[in-house]
């Protein structure tokens, strides 16, 4: 059974909208990860540590279309280039996939994600993809959360968790660390 791991930057009020402020990110505070917060390298070390566990990447359509052209050419993301990628979308076509960014499979439903989890292989990391994260969380398919919580309140925007009325889900803290710039690393396992 493969693990699905959500990894992301999130504001203290649970918003993960437009952290980098790049193309396709329209939040009024886009780029909030880099504004008004001192850069402390160790606060971002989690991103490098995740590479050892990542055997595949998963995105929703919008995040895939935002990340693919940038990450494909980025030296910071070179280790991701040849990893298998999965895009969950009902509208994306094969002709919309980025050339030169490793093998990419389109999944059309949450049920197909559930089937993928039953296959052999390592952890699949989900980046960005707020809508997808909410749907997979509501379906009980996310196994772990890697969160860097930033000391900002963004008000509105895409939230990591849905407001759907659902059964309580319990998390177990695996690791945490606070940094001098106010960022807090939280790694939680979903208990079942």
Topology:
Blueprint: E1 4-11, H1 45-50, E2 54-60, H2 61-71, E3 85-88, E4 104-107, H3 110-117, E5 123-127, H4 130-138, E6 144-150, E7 171-178, E8 184-190
Parallel strand pairs: 1-5, 1-6, 2-3, 2-5, 3-4
Antiparallel strand pairs: 6-8, 7-8
Describe the structure.
By secondary structure, the chain is of the alpha/beta class. It has a single domain, classed as 3-Layer(aba) Sandwich (Dihydrofolate Reductase, subunit A). 18% of the residues lie in helices and 26% in strands. It has four helices and eight strands, in the order βαβαββαβαβββ. It has helices at residues 45-50, 61-71, 110-117, 130-138; strands at residues 4-11, 54-60, 85-88, 104-107, 123-127, 144-150, 171-178, 184-190. Strands 4-3-2-5-1-6-8-7 form an eight-stranded mixed β-sheet. A hairpin with a 5-residue loop joins β7 (171-178) and β8. The mean pLDDT is 89.
């Amino acid at each position: 059974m493969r693990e699905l791991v959500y990894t992301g930057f999130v504001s203290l009020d649970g918003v993960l909208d437009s952290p980098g402020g790049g193309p396709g990110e329209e939040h009024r505070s886009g780029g909030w990860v880099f504004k008004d917060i001192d850069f402390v390298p160790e606060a971002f070390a989690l991103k490098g540590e995740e590479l050892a566990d990542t055997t595949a990447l998963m995105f929703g359509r919008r995040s895939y279309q935002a990340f693919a052209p940038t990450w494909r050419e980025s030296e910071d993301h070179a280790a991701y280039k040849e990893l298998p990628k999965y895009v969950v979308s009902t509208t994306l076509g094969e002709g919309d996939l980025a050339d030169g960014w490793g093998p990419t499979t389109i999944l059309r439903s949450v049920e197909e994600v559930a089937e993928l989890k039953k296959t052999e292989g390592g952890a699949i990391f989900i980046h960005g993809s707020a809508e997808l994260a909410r749907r997979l969380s509501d379906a009980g398919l996310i196994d772990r959360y890697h969160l860097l919580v930033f000391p900002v309140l963004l008000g509105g925007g895409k939230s990591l968790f849905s407001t759907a009325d659902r059964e309580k889900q319990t998390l177990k803290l695996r690791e945490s660390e606070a940094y001098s710039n106010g960022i807090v690393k939280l790694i939680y396992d979903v208990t079942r």
